[in-house]
Give the backbone structure.
Amino acid sequence: MPQVAEKRRIVEQACVDFERDLRTFLAGVTRDFHLVDDAYQRMVVKAIEAAESVNPETVRGWLFRIALNEARELQRESARQGRLKEGFRTSMPLPTESPEGDGYAQIVSEEEKVIVLRALGRLDAEYQEVVVRRLQKGQTFATISEEMGRPLGTVLTWMRRALIQLRETAEIRQLTNE
Amino acid sequence: MTTTDHNDEQFWQACLYVMGELSEAQQEQFEDQLACDPELCDFVIEATQLMACAQTVDPVLSRQLVPQSAPAEAGTRIGRSLASAAALAACLALLFVVTRPVTPPATADPDAEVLVDAWLSNGLEFESTEATEDEEFTPEIDVPEWIIAGVSLAELELDDGSMPDDVMPDGEDMEL
């Protein structure tokens, strides 16, 4: 059936075109690099199996829904196997700690890291500190609040402003749009 | 709420989700929204990429950022040092007043000031940049002998400005 074959081709091509976004999305949802590859592969299989139901105009959103379902399913399986899902920082070790090497290479490039570093350096001092403590040192917001001697709400506000300012940096905007 | 505010709020929620800061119920609710909101999926992608970049920044470079941006952390330690040093200086000043048989001079003894300043600066410079988060700062109030001796040096000075030979043993270095 040519129509089904054509839809299948569209789905396969979309999986390739949106691979990086899908992997990044899966990394954010699972918070576990070990699950990203599995989730992505399962998503691709499921998507191809269900290709005849796809609307070519909304294939991207459709793929993300499948990806989300597969990620949630994998998380449930992992939880049943006793693997704890911690926050972003602890489940994704720093490159120097990861025996498999830099897992972030899948979703961020060296150029992007440099751009973010530069933008981070231009933030207000308090914002920089909160970002570094939370994302690089893996401290909880409660610990950051205690060590910086600031209320928890203030620390969260600083983190929010820092991330929004980073996002709005012209160079990072350009990366996102690309 | 403007569109920008709404986008910022969505982005922040995505960041909280990716950081694992949402409760289980909030996470479920957020994921239900993800299933039918492609724009929210894009915010999750943005949040993940941004935080992955910020997380993988060179730890050496991040330490350069933290000192300039972490006045509270260093300030807490320096504050404790200053408080201890101030207490020490007060003790030294009291010792100085008590040991002098005559009324205190109108002007402060420059030698004693130099020694106390040297002790204070040594305490601050000792602050290690490698200090870990769990390191507890315990102020030392163990006054070395040379400090106490140094404060009293002025009394022993000879008329020609030199010191008696038996005051400074040969080969003993003063740690500054």
Remarks:
- Helices of chain B lie at 3-19, 24-36, 38-55, 59-69, 71-99, 110-125, 145-151, 153-156.
- Confidence is low (pLDDT under 50) at residues 68-74, 123-137, 170-176 of chain B.
